[in-house]
Specification:
Shape: globular
Radius of gyration: 16 Å
Bound molecules: adenosine monophosphate
Largest sheet: 7 strands, mixed
Distance between the termini: 23 Å
Structural class: alpha/beta
Order of helices and strands: HEEHHEHEEEEHEHE
Number of strands: 9
């Protein structure tokens, strides 16, 4: 008997399947007990990557006003997604970086990761007041990274227009932690 895999996500089954087929599971990385979701095969596949980026841009407005004015990428895999989304939508990109990387830090936020602790930072003058900001990252796990990033965006004067992740690990309940935030996950597992 063949097993039927059901894919689910906020942009429908086909997009969820597209993401799922671009992910490799790596056991015990970066620590024992963590199942790491490696999305680099998706990034390396031109057709798949383009379809995923188009799904993100389309989610916020297929034509005319895109629904956001700038895209934030979270270091480091978020940079890959953010740059492509920004280019496709014709807007700019702002990096949110790990501590010590930015020369002109305006705000910092400490947070807990699924596998450790970290600090994120954003530059001075990153956003115009009220600018609509789309935040993107590869994986939503516990939601700590996303929560810290959304808070940095708001501290820096931006308005959160959305949060898109390629993949959500539902068993870690990041969505609950972000209750009330506009979360868009292309694949939920
Ligand atoms: P969290 O703050 O727990 O939601 O963790 C999300 C951040 O950590 C994202 O930037 C992911 O790139 C990374 N991350 C956490 N858990 C995983 C995982 N199991 N596989 C791949 N990346 C992960």
């Amino acid at each position: 008997m063949t097993e039927t895999v059901q894919y689910r996500g906020d942009s429908g089954t086909d997009v969820a399947k597209l993401v799922a087929e671009g992910v490799l599971d790596v056991s015990d990385f970066p620590k024992s007990g963590i199942l790491f979701k490696d999305l680099t095969p998706l990034f390396a596949d031109g057709d798949r990557f383009r379809a995923v980026i188009d799904a993100i841009v389309g989610h916020y407005g297929a034509t005319g006003d895109r629904g956001f004015d700038v895209v934030v990428g979270v270091e480091a895999r978020g940079f890959v997604i953010a740059s492509a989304v920004a280019y496709a939508a014709g807007v700019g990109v702002v990096p949110v970086r790990k501590a010590g990387k930015l020369p002109r830090v305006a705000y910092s936020a400490a947070y807990d990761l699924e596998y450790g602790q970290a600090v994120l930072e954003v530059s001075e003058g990153a956003f115009q007041p009220g600018q609509r900001v789309l935040v993107v990252d590869d994986v939503l796990a516990t939601g700590g990274t996303a929560e810290a990033t959304l808070s940095l965006v708001e501290q820096a004067g931006g308005a959160v227009a959305g949060l898109t992740v390629l993949m959500e690990l539902a068993f870690l309940h990041g969505r609950d932690r972000l209750a009330g935030r506009p979360l868009h996950a292309l694949l939920t597992v």
